[in-house]
Automatic annotation (TrEMBL), chain A:
Protein's organism: Sphingomonas desiccabilis
Na+/H+ antiporter MnhB subunit-related protein domain span: 824-946
Stretches assigned to the MrpA C-terminal/MbhE domain: 702-799
An annotated GO cellular component: plasma membrane
Protein's UniProt name: Monovalent cation/H+ antiporter subunit A
NADH:quinone oxidoreductase/Mrp antiporter transmembrane domain sequence ranges: 133-407
The keyword Transmembrane helix belongs to this UniProt entry's keyword annotation: yes
From TrEMBL, chain B:
Main subcellular location: membrane
Organism: Sphingomonas molluscorum
Protein name listed in UniProt: Na+/H+ antiporter subunit C
Family under the similarity heading: Belongs to the CPA3 antiporters (TC 2.A.63) subunit C family.
Membrane topology (UniProt): Multi-pass membrane protein
InterPro entries: CPA3_antiporter_subunitC (IPR050601), NUOK/Mnh_C1-like (IPR039428)
Bilayer-spanning residue ranges: 26-46, 74-96
Highest classification ranks of the organism: Bacteria, Pseudomonadati, Pseudomonadota, Alphaproteobacteria, Sphingomonadales
Protein's cellular compartments: Cell membrane
Length: 975, 112
């Protein structure tokens, strides 16, 4: 019971932000308050529910909830909550709530605020799902989803070019990293044989011993480093500051950039502990720490400074994880929480300064303390935490960092140099923190501001107050506040063997304390000396050439031009070379097995040759060759000849025990011929000779020769393949199943029909859907149809007839043609009910005898189209209202509803039901729901076929539209 | 019979392939029709040839070897209907292309 309720809570907390995102997205553009209220309520509820789950995980229990998705592939949706994920989930939800409150006051009412909150909630959900993932593939999926929502949020002010390009850059870098992560995860899955997190975490030794360990490690690290803005992928983060400040506070300092770190902590027990891990992760973390801090010193933009400082602090966490000792991992988790609190509050303070002073340029800011003492005090405390001043939380994790750096882990030079390099990074960090505070809040009142700044509204400061309070309380009473939570998280992360550590402010005079003091003193001193020259700096010294952005642009442009070149070189937009290549490749691929294994006809007894059959196929083949010969200059003849081939194959089907196929082929042949004849009207007259008086050019002869060779090769190959296949005995496949069960379980004697409407009804449903889509596409393409210039006029014969009618008194245009057609028309009108009856007959008997929905549908549409042919479109439509789209919709609905009906009786979709009923006089009659399904097929086929044919036929009676390329023909409205 | 049918399928395929490599749209449509006949026949023939054995069973026990293979038949039956739809769609696309570009060349451009 307990587990059930907690899994419900997990699902609820996870789905709430996504639902909220959808609802908020639907709010009107101007409803800022409603959107903020809803988003705030979602975040607050999530925080409360997640907090309520704490007692369940406090003793080290792992809560799991999940649904099977593709269990055979090891893909299940698993939610997994332990102490580590709990801390991250709380960060996401609680800071999310504070950011929503802050954003309500930060966002301008002129912006489409609901969209902002919708994206923010979507991010919150994705991030939550990422940390709660109990399956690595699922984690990679939500990883990409956070990249996507981050892209949307950075580009929120999309009217701004820099926002658009920053969003694109962030997406390309982090999504590419996500792709690497996915491949890395797949490799892990290959090693372990499962993507389930628990299984993976238990297989650390196996993974480290595998030969795939190094590639998997590197790919996963690329994913983590891109996301957490580690060198050399750090450059996207400063550009991402184009986002609204709440986004910077939330995504780009507190949560999303921590995803990379989270991943490293999560997989720490599995991946850490090797030399490769130590070397790569430690050195990347160290470089990032120093470079980020160095670059932060020279930023003139408040948010830029904070962005580089974030990079540097993420470097600290990475470095700690790289060191690889359990104590360092504890420090990493601790610093993640600390950094989230002080950096989010600093971003919010920077947002307030921007809001009130109208600029974020440090050179213009000065003396803001007198205008906004509260914000200034809060920012000072947070900045002090960032610099690592005692009694604040930043100090504690920094002490742990220094202690770990001093520890002798191994004999490498890196390990020996670590304490000094880290201290250098910390000196920089003190320097930019002091600069941030002194430059914006102290000194003479600023003179270059556009407006007079004053304190922000109280509700806007509240989130900062809460976060700063957390900094102070954790800083002073670490053991009672964060201690228990950290303990649970550490035990969950490290898997049982958690180290002994003490969260105290005072550890006596120690080396770490000494280094801390040195950093504080030197950093402050450096600011005093260099303050002026820092304000004059335009670029980051030493790193000016190492601009990540420039490299990124260069790589991107090489990629784009390379793709263009490939496309020019390998691609063609001409159809003939494409088809030629396709046929050639198909021939070559089909030839390969014969080359390897040789070709021999089978040994099965041949069927006796019947002269009649041979004659029919001789005629059919001759028709095909003649059709191919005539298709260019004599289209009508070619259509007739190709129909001849169709009839031959139809007779072939009858001969070879496939009456259903023969029936359908015959009917479809009829409508296809009508269709092609309707199309002929719009094609240009073809002159018999392209090169009058000259010989055909050699290149053309060559091309035709090679095409002929390709055609003969393809035909010969298919013939040889077919012969080899037909002369081998048929293996006992699933057909026996269909034959044996058809009557017993499907209630029909016609096995082909039972397969279509019962055994494989789902395929048929898909098929008729395709048919419906094609018919609608044809219809909509023809609505905008513009015939070519020379096809706009009536055909010559019709013009002659109309001219005759006009020249004679008492005749209306069109009389001649209706006189011509009077006998066929009468016959066809009389025949109409008979064809309808035949169609119904075919339909009803389909389950037991050749027929069925397809054949009946086509027959019915032939009945309709014959009326059009005999009497003309206008007169048919005056008497008979055919609404093909209704037939299509009805058919699809009936078929789908029949299938869904099975669900009501707890059977899978499209399960059929049948009974034999004793009907008086008629006797035993099968009654099957499959018949209902077939009715859907029938209606849809009628509708689709009729829609296609009528739409093309209608073109002739449309008032000719203006020809596309000018022209002098005057449109004549037709009958 | 097998030899006759195999040759027929081969000739139909060859004519169809020749036509789809031609430059005029109408030739391509007819070529695809011919290829559909050939392919339908080919798939059908994969169930082997039987005369006078349509897969229409009685109501008693069924001796499967007495009937023609119903599975390729079911596949081909829907393929026949779909190939009609494909021909129709292609025809309309080509007619529209002819209206817009003024030529019935497959690339919408006579080129020569």
């Amino acid at each position: 019971m307990l587990i059930a309720t907690s899994s419900v809570t997990l699902w609820f907390v996870l789905l709430l932000p996504f639902l909220g995102s959808l609802v908020v997205a639907g709010l009107p553009t101007r409803s800022r308050d409603a959107a903020a209220l809803l988003a705030g309520a979602v975040a607050f509820a999530g925080t409360v529910f997640m907090a309520a789950l704490y007692p369940r995980v406090a003793d080290g229990t792992i809560l799991q909830a999940g649904v099977s998705w593709l269990p055979s592939l090891g893909l299940n949706i698993v939610l997994r909550l332990d102490g580590l994920t709990w801390i991250f989930a709380m960060l996401v939800l609680a800071i999310g709530f504070l950011v929503v409150v802050y954003a309500r006051y930060y966002m301008s009412p002129r912006d489409p605020v609901p969209r902002f909150f919708s994206f923010l909630l979507a991010f919150m959900g994705s991030m939550l799902a990422l940390v709660l993932s109990g399956n690595l593939v699922q984690m990679a999926f939500f990883w990409e989803l956070t990249s996507l929502t981050s892209f949307l949020l950075i580009g929120y002010w999309h009217q701004n070019e820099s926002a658009r390009s920053a969003a694109r850059m962030a997406l390309i870098v982090t999504a590419a990293g996500g792709l690497c992560l996915l491949v890395g995860v797949l490799l892990i899955g290959k090693i372990v044989g499962s993507y389930d997190l628990d299984t993976v975490l238990a297989s650390g030794d196996r993974i480290r011993a595998s030969s795939l360990y190094l590639p998997a490690l590197i790919l996963i690290l690329i994913g983590a480093f891109t996301k957490s803005a580690q060198f050399p992928f750090h450059f996207w983060l400063p550009h991402a500051m184009a986002a609204p400040t709440p986004v910077s506070a939330y995504l780009h300092s507190a949560t999303m950039v921590k995803a990379g770190v989270f991943l490293l902590i999560r997989l720490w027990p599995v991946l850490a502990g090797s030399d490769a891990w130590y070397l790569i992760v430690t050195s990347v973390g160290l470089i990032t720490l120093i470079l980020g801090a160095w670059a932060a010193i020279f930023q003139q933009d408040l948010k830029g400074l904070l962005a580089y400082s974030t990079i540097s602090h993420l470097g600290i966490i990475t470095l700690l994880l790289g060191i690889g000792s359990p104590l360092a991992a504890v420090a990493a988790i601790f610093h993640t929480v600390n950094h989230a609190t002080f950096k989010a509050s600093l971003f919010m303070a920077a947002g307030i300064i921007d809001h009130e002073a109208g600029t974020r340029d440090l050179r213009k800011l000065s003396g803001l303390y007198r205008f906004m003492p509260v914000t200034a005090t809060l920012a000072m405390v947070a900045a002090a935490a960032m610099a690592g001043v005692p009694l604040l939380n930043g100090f504690l994790s920094k002490e742990m960092l220094l202690a770990e750096a001093l520890e002798d882990t191994n004999e490498t030079f890196l390990d020996q140099a670590l304490p000094y390099l880290v201290t250098v990074g910390l000196i920089f960090s003190v320097l930019y923190s002091v600069r941030f505070i002194h430059q914006s809040f102290f000194g003479p009142p600023a003179t270059k501001l556009e407006r007079r700044p004053h304190e922000a509204p109280h509700w806007m400061r509240l989130p900062i107050e809460i976060l700063v309070l957390a900094c102070v309380v954790i800083g002073i009473f670490p053991a009672v506040t964060i201690g228990p939570f950290l303990d649970v998280a550490v035990r969950a992360a490290l898997g049982g063997g958690a180290p002994e550590y003490s969260l105290a402010i005072w550890h006596g005079f120690s080396k770490p304390l000494l280094l801390s003091v040195i950093a504080l003193v030197l950093g402050t001193a450096a600011y005093l000396v260099f303050a002026r020259s820092l304000n004059a700096a335009d670029a980051v010294p030493l790193l000016g050439r190492l601009r990540g952005r420039r490299m990124f642009d260069a790589v991107l442009s090489v990629l784009v031009s390379g793709t263009r070149w490939l496309e020019d070189w390998l691609g063609t937009r001409r159809l003939q070379p494409q088809l030629r290549l396709m046929v050639l490749v198909a021939c070559a691929v089909a030839l390969l097995p014969f080359l390897r294994h040789g070709y021999a006809p089978g040994t099965a007894p041949r069927t006796l040759i019947d002269p009649g059959f041979a004659l029919i196929w001789l005629i059919g083949s001759a028709c095909a060759v003649a059709g191919a010969w005539q298709a260019k200059y004599h289209r009508l003849a070619a259509v007739v000849l190709v129909s001849g081939t169709g009839l031959a194959s139809c007779i072939g089907f009858v001969w070879l025990s496939a009456p259903d196929l023969a029936l359908t082929q015959l009917l479809v042949e009829t409508v296809t011929t009508v269709l092609l004849l309707l199309g002929l009207r719009w094609l240009p007259k073809r002159l018999p000779d392209n090169w009058p008086g000259k010989r055909t050019p050699a290149s053309v002869v060559l091309r035709r020769g090679s095409d002929l060779a390709i055609a003969v090769a393809a035909g010969g190959g298919v013939a040889a393949l077919a012969y080899a296949m037909m002369t081998r005995p048929l293996p006992d496949a699933i057909s026996r199943f269909f034959l044996e069960r058809s009557y017993a379980e499907g209630g029909g004697r016609n096995v082909v029909n039972v397969i279509l409407v019962d055994f494989r009804a789902f395929d048929t449903l898909g098929e008729i859907t395709v048919l419906a889509i094609v018919a609608l596409t044809v219809f909509s393409l023809l609505r905008r149809f513009r015939p070519a210039r020379e096809s706009v006029r009536d055909p010559e014969q019709q013009r002659l007839q109309d001219a005759f009618d006009e020249a004679h008194a008492g005749r209306a245009p069109g009389d001649t043609v209706s006189d011509y057609l009077v006998v066929p028309r009468v016959i066809l009108e009389w025949v109409f009910p008979f064809i309808v009856v035949i169609a119904l007959y075919l339909f009803l008997r389909g389950h037991d005898l050749p027929g069925g929905g397809f054949a009946a549908g086509v027959a019915m549409s032939i009945a309709l189209i014959l009326q059009y042919m005999a009497a003309g479109t206008r007169s048919v439509e005056a008497r008979l209202r055919v609404r093909p789209t209704d037939w299509i919709a009805g058919g699809l609905l009936i078929a789908a509803a029949t299938g869904a009906g099975a669900l009501l009786f707890d059977h899978p979709f499209l399960t059929s039901w049948f009974r034999y009923l004793e009907v008086p006089l008629v006797g035993k009659t099968p009654l099957a729901t499959a018949l209902l399904f077939d009715l859907g097929v029938f209606l849809l086929v009628v509708g689709a076929t009729a829609l296609i044919l009528i739409a093309i036929a209608h073109q002739s009676i449309r008032r000719p539209v203006r020809p596309l390329r000018g022209g002098d023909e005057t449109g004549v409205e037709k009958r | 019979m097998e030899l006759v049918l195999a040759l027929g399928i081969g000739i139909l395929t060859a004519s169809g392939v020749w036509l789809i490599l031609r430059p005029r749209t109408f030739q391509v449509i007819l070529g695809l029709s011919l290829i559909s006949y050939a392919v339908n026949m080919f798939i059908y023939a994969m169930g082997r040839l039987k005369v006078d054995a349509p897969p229409i069973v009685g109501s008693g026990a069924v001796e499967a070897s007495r009937y023609d293979d119903p599975l390729p038949q079911a596949l081909v039956l829907t393929a026949i209907v779909i190939s009609f739809a494909m021909t129709a769609l292609l025809l309309v696309v080509l007619l529209a292309s002819r209206g817009i570009t003024g030529t019935d060349h497959v690339d919408g451009d006579d080129g020569e």
